[in-house]
Amino acid sequence: MAIKSFEGKTAFITGGASGIGLGIAKAFSARGARIVIADLRPDHIEKALATFAGGAQSNSVSAIEIDVTNREAYADAAEKMQAEFGGIDILVNNAGVGVEGPILEARYADWDFGLGVNVNGVVNGLQAFLPQMIAHGRGGHIVNTSSLAAAVMMPEQFVIYAAGKAAVLNMSENMREVLAAKNIGMSVLLPAFTKSNIHEAARNRPAHLRKDSGFKASEKALSEREIGAEWMEPEEVGEMVAKGVLNNDLYIITHGQFKNRMRERAEAMLAATPESDFQF
Length: 280
Ligand SMILES: NC(=O)c1ccc[n+]([C@@H]2O[C@H](COP(=O)([O-])OP(=O)(O)OC[C@H]3O[C@@H](n4cnc5c(N)ncnc54)[C@H](O)[C@@H]3O)[C@@H](O)[C@H]2O)c1
Hints:
The protein is of the alpha/beta class. It is 44% helix and 13% strand. It is built from eight helices and seven strands, in the order βαβαβαβαβαβααβα. Strands 3-2-1-4-5-6-7 form a seven-stranded parallel beta sheet, sandwiched between helices. Bound molecules: nicotinamide-adenine-dinucleotide. Nicotinamide-adenine-dinucleotide binds at residues 14-15, 17-21, 39-41, 44, 66-69, 94-97, 117, 121, 145, 147, 191-194, 196-198, 200, 204.
């Protein structure tokens, strides 16, 4: 079952103040949803709210400053959403960080930072909000932002990032059926090159995971990376997500450039798999 319309629905969008999350917020808002932007960065929140100011939907867009790795803050946010809106209808677990660097230099701080936001941030969103989404009985939808990096073999500097995104892809696929029984749809977004601020990963790294990082040089280089003029606009991704939600599509995939590498990976796995008369 999918939600049939965004009209009057409340959508909680993590990382909703920038890039893809903001693109999703705009697309949902244009279709009549109430938007709660949940983001770590007050500067992003301020700019994001300004993009809605004066528009027809501006009164139905609000923001919460939250770190998705903070479970207590998440519990408070869920309580607030319950009190204000009788619970949310759409959860978009989109906040993520572009953690990248030479994997043999990685320290625990780099794994903890990357998996903390990109995996546990999603887990925390599910744990905090699923109870109210099930209890209110209206049904709803979840979108988890993974990456096409999860679907192909990636260069070594993306090991932590791709591992986290693969976990998000996998949990989305495997939760779909049980959520469908509760009238909650599940989509996983796999984007590639999209214009955003993901190169600012270092700015989003908490102080206690900075000192012992092995990725300092690569994060500095990433922070100076130019955004490609040909990269996709986040608004275009947002439109794809809105349509994918209404279709209850499991996979929302933005770019076709990796299709051959996706096929090669699947074929390599199948080629390594013995034949069996019994199939699950
Ligand atoms: N841009 C791309 O090309 C691309 C490709 C594949 C996947 N993605 C994924 O898309 C998602 C959105 O990224 P984006 O490219 O729009 O980047 P972005 O940096 O523009 O937006 C991410 C937002 O998340 C927020 N954020 C970061 N850490 C947070 C935390 N701990 N708690 C709450 N908010 C936090 C940031 O402040 C930012 O506003 C991420 O999950 C990213 O991995 C992006």
